[in-house]
Amino acid sequence: MSENNTTQKEFGFLIDASRCIDCRACLVACSVENEVPNDISRIWIKETGVTGQFPDLSRYSAPYHCMHCDDPSCVSACTVGALQKSDSGIVTYDADRCIGCRYCMYACPFQVPNFEWDVRFPLIVKCDMCVSRLAAGEGEPACAATCPTDAIMYGEKSSMLAQAHQRIELNPDKYVDHVYGETENGGTATFYVSPVPFEELGFPTGGIVSSAYTNRLVTHGTPAVAGAVAIGLSGIYLTIKHHEEAMAGLGEEMHGETAVSAFPGEPTHNETAEA
Amino acid sequence: MFIKKIVGEIKSLSVGYFIVAVIAASGLAVGAYRLYAGLGDTTNLSKAFPWGIWISFDLSTVAFSGGAFTLAALVYVFHLHELHPAVRPTVLAGLIGYSSVLVILFMDLGRWDRFYHFLIYPNLNSALFEVSWCIALYSTILIYELSPVFLKNSRFSGVLPIIEKWTIPLVIAGVTLSTLHQSSLGTLFVIMSSRLHPLWYSMLLPVFFLILSLAAGLAMVTAGAVISYWVFKRTLPENVMAELVWFIPWVLGVYLVLKLGELEITDELHLMFSSGMYSVLFLAELIIGVLIPIILFSFKKVRHNRVGVLVGAGFVLVGTVLNRFNVSWFAMRPVNGEVYSPHWMEVAILVGVVATAVLAYSLVAHYFPLFDETVVVTPAQTRIRNPQTILSPKATGD
Q: Can you tell me the ipTM of this complex?
């Protein structure tokens, strides 16, 4: 991405499923910070449910919010450009632009964007890394600041990713050997480590190419297709027209009448057509 | 008095108009309630299924309305002037189809109060942005193409020669815009690789959408002509109908080869028989919408028979609707087992909009010279003998 050669620091999350105790303090903190009701929140919990045989029971959970993709599908989809990727890596949402078409909800491979279904003039509900809180000088988003077990950590993106790999390296028996979010949908700014496979936590398993990229391959072809179709149609129209006029000229000739354009040295078909 | 005249006219209309009008009004009343109440209580849309039957309806209707651009291309670009009598009824159907889509899209927008934002906040990467623009521009061109019907007997008939002069460039612009948005409706789903079942998901979706819309458009023109034979006692000459449906097997043949070829290349062909309900939907779509019409319209007897044309075209249309519903609804894989079925209000609003469309078409057909060049059905005359009556007025200057 062209983003890479800017000097702006990118930020992200490191979320450790082994540390999450499902206390849901992050949900409350998010709800209070961003003034959204708890039932259509920007953050929620994914969990495995209780697994294993008694007495060896286990249960894992992890908070889940916008992954802040490097090349976000929602940004590519948004009809009016209300969703944008900021220089610091945040996928931001402009509530004043949104028309509520909900294309982003279908485009997002992580099923992140939420919607205010019960409001007359609804908006999309989506994590923006507490951008206004950060702007006010607070160090980190509400969820990370609140988390009592440091399951949610916030910091510079490269450092978060390095720490994720370090945890797996130091405890290869504890963690699954995969940093979720590193390659998913072309890479994101949220990195998960987990003691159980991510499918068991209910995480979507997507491709490593962003669907935004696939989408652009097609939508960027539009001007070329438009030009080609318009020129092709004009060509077909004029070709058949000239052909018909030539045939008509030939017909007249055969009936012994003046057939101007059929003789050499006379005006060509082209000129008669323009006349 | 003018009002008295209108009241008199209304009284003279048959009872069918009033029944349709009542249905239309009821549906639109539900629509007004939806705008007031929001989407939660009036639809079954959810986080897992943010789009529902409205989008499926929009996709189907735009495909049907493809008749207008297919026919415009055949008549004006490919010079098949003998098809000209079908142009006006089809363009009107197209315009009314697109208007219905715009109304339903308006219903679908959470922030319907900001519908105009697509005009001022462009996102050139967005397929939906492209679709919105093309539909808006193309509807304008359809109004232009149709304007002679309304202007002909009015005091503004003086502008008709000017309108005619610019017909060809605008038709070409219209066909180009249609190519773009018919295909872009397929592009909408290219970004949904994680949700749409692989039997339907493809980077070629825009191509599939475009080709099927050509077939659906032709089917719509001919089915419309047969229905109009019974309802309005006006129809297309039999040879014109036969020529239109002649194209259908070719178009569908291209579709079939591309569709199966794409599945073969991506190594997904086996899913055709191993995906349970998805396989049933997929095969139903291909057999009803593609295979049966190809076989039927290969017979000259069918092409020259009014009932045969209607049946064959019916298969194409049903198959197209199934395809659009599959892509936008049935083949969207559920999230956490959650599925979608529409709320009654969603259906009621659709019925209301369709009834309004039927009413609008009938009234225009009743009062304006829509069928000028079509054939009046009389008991003795089912075939056109005199080619003079079906030849078009020249589209361009000589």
A: 0.88
